Amino acid sequence: MVDLLALQPNMNINLHIVASDNRQEKVFQEIQRPVFSLLEKGPLCKSCSYISYSNLKGLSKQKYLDRMTGAVLDDYAELLQSSIL
Predict the structure, then answer these.
(1) Residue 82: pLDDT band by 50, 70, 90 thresholds?
(2) Can you tell which superkingdom this protein's organism belongs to (predicted)?
(3) pTM, rounded to two decimals
């Protein structure tokens, strides 16, 4: 993911890591690693969210999913709380 950001610095996309429900803490630990804090656009933990498998499964059941924009992911994504930073 970081390679993608480095190779395409002008790309403005939302980043999401999808993992099992019990991996939230690990995902947040990893995106806070020092190597990911020196990115041109700022620390990865400020621009990357976590989406659990169960939340993704809930999203997949939305009646009009085929007509929704990517913004619907914001309702299912979890960001690292700033108090943890």
Answers:
(1) low
(2) Bacteria
(3) 0.78
Q: How far apart are CA 14 and CA 74, in angstroms?
A: 9
DSSP label at residue 11: -
Give the contacts of 2 (CB within 8 A, at least 6 positions apart): 35, 36, 39, 44
Residue 85 lies in a domain: no
Residue range(s) defining the domain that contains residue 47: 2-75
Residue 15 contacts residue 40 (beta carbons within 8 Å): no
Residue 68 resides in a domain? yes
How many domains are contained in the chain?
1
Identify whether the C-beta of residue 80 lies closer than 8 Å to the C-beta of residue 31: yes
